[in-house]
Amino acid sequence: MMVGHWLMRRNQAAAECTWTSPVNAVSWLKGVYEENPPLEREDGRLAYCGFDVKTAYALDALPRGTDVTWAYWTASGSLASYSVVACPNRSHPHIPCPLPPA
Predict the structure, then answer these.
(1) pLDDT digits (tens, 9 = 90+) for 23-75
(2) Helix (H, G, I), strand (E, B) or coil at 40
(3) Is the pLDDT higher at 8 or at 27?
(4) Packing angle of the helix pair 51-61, 22-35 (nearest 10 deg)
(5) β-sheet bridge partners, residue 38
(6) Residue pair 7/89 in contact by the 8 Å Cβ criterion
(7) How many helices (H) and strands (E) in the chain?
(8) What pTM does this model have?
């Protein structure tokens, strides 16, 4: 399944998670990232690209209709995966947006 296919799951879309601004969508991503931070390596080096790199990419990609997914392992050994689906979606222009922003 492609990330953009979430647009077809209208019954699972939440109005509180629908944004008109990429900045607001990225703010949500930042919040879940801070609540569930990635695993830190024992040697102090980054296990994943930096937070600023992730944020800059998301702010660039979303207005272009490209989905953004942040996925990483947490300290507890769980996989955290959060996605923002762009709408209209560049890869799936035929799928309509599920909900207007509240």
Answers:
(1) 999 999 999 899 988 988 889 887 888 889 999 999 999 999 898 989 999 98
(2) coil
(3) 27
(4) 150
(5) 74
(6) yes
(7) 2, 2
(8) 0.77
pLDDT value of residue 82: 85
Compute how many other C-beta atoms are within 10 angstroms of the C-beta atom of residue 80: 17
Phi, psi of 70 (to 5 degrees): -110, 115
Beta carbons of 101 and 25 less than 8 angstroms apart: no
At 101 the pLDDT is 57
Please name the helix (run of DSSP H) or strand (run of DSSP E) that holds residue 58, with its range, or none.
helix 51-61
Closest CA to 21 of 73, 62, 61: 62
Q: Which two tokens stand for residue 9?
A: 């799951």
Distance from C-alpha of 96 to C-alpha of 87, rounded to nearest angstrom: 8
Token pair, residue 60, equals 């660039």
